[in-house]
Amino acid sequence: MSKKQQTARSLALTVLTQIFDEGAYSNIALKQELDKTGLTSQDKALATEIVYGTVARKMTLEWYLSHYIEDRDKIDSWVYYLLMLSLYQILYLDKIPAHASVNEAVNLAKRKKGADKFVNALLRKLLTADLPSIASIKRKNKRLSIQYSVPVWLVKTLLEEYGEERAEKILASLFERNKASVRVTDTDKFDDLREELEAEASQLSPVGLVKSSGHFAGSVAFAKGDITIQDETSQLVAPTLDLKGDEQVLDACAAPGGKTMHIASYLTSGQVTALDLYDHKLTLIAENAERLNVADKVVTQKLDARQVAQFFGENAFDKILVDAPCSGIGLIRRKPDIKYNKEAADFASLQETQLEILDSVCQSVKKGGIITYSTCTIIQKENQEVVQEFLRRHPNFEQVVLQHPSSDILVDGCILITPEQYQTDGFFISQVRRIS
Description:
By secondary structure, the protein is of the alpha/beta class. Helices cover 44% and strands 15% of the residues. The chain is built from 17 helices and 13 strands. Strands 5, 6, 7, 8, 9, 10, 11, 12 and 13 form a 9-stranded mixed sheet that branches. Helix 15 (346-361) links the parallel strand 8 and strand 9.
């Protein structure tokens, strides 16, 4: 489709096809299509809403459609996605007239003979029919799975770990829009920047500013390096290292480098070594360090974090951060496709990797040194269970009890933030100290 013919819905259909058929990441696929389109900012916003909304509600939309489509396999996949995105608009976007969604869908369906009549008939039936009730689903796990569009295994896990009331609050919060948040790099400018950016102070981070929505990266403050994009929860990590300024610090899983930069901001004569497996990610870290004027404090190294001990040897670092590879369950609000690409079985292999990294880096921290372990997930198997297993394997380490002014995010001496509490990413932070 030419740029002149392209609409918000046709762009959304293109992106959804890439996500569902090719396994593309929603945020990356959408950005690539938006960057090359000639759509207005208003249409770009609509396309973004349709893509994220349809992905977020995918299982719910499929459940409704299953009552009206006998055999999904007989329909071209793009036609099915067109029905999904149209139903999303009809059910969830109050400001868009239903007839506009239907008319646009019919126009898009004309690329295949007969598809337009099928789409028109089915959508008009959905508009006039009493839709089936999700509340009628008898099995609780299945009902919650369809209601909140998450796999049954994730419903089951959240119910077991958080109880029914809180699990439902967590699931419901995943449909709320993520706040835009930044870290202020010069705290002396905090109040001025808050005013300039028309933002609010974060409830969690003393150096964080937040807005319900906004494009911080387009601001003068961002270009000057006065602010950097970082979620509030992520801003809580570097302070746990209690840096004095002269330490040798390792950021074992550093990309894209937000926490590396935060660590570097505390250093005077010290240095932070940032590791990643990929050159382009190390380049990104180096570029961030230049923009934020901490390049003299940051060294990058291409290395698998599981090889730290054999590469750096013993007693190489005063402090170490392991922001471990994880399922990313805490990021579902921003990356809704995560929930469909994971399985319960993934947690066992992830835990194995997380422990391999900790087993390696712990050999390179000095006596008395600390390791902060963090993840962007809210599942115990990747969090508390990893810390407990590490301490069982390494009796020469002890847990350090973390503190925070908000007592509701403190669990078992760790920081655990779930998405419904402060409308942030879900996040976990814990810490251990080498005692001998």
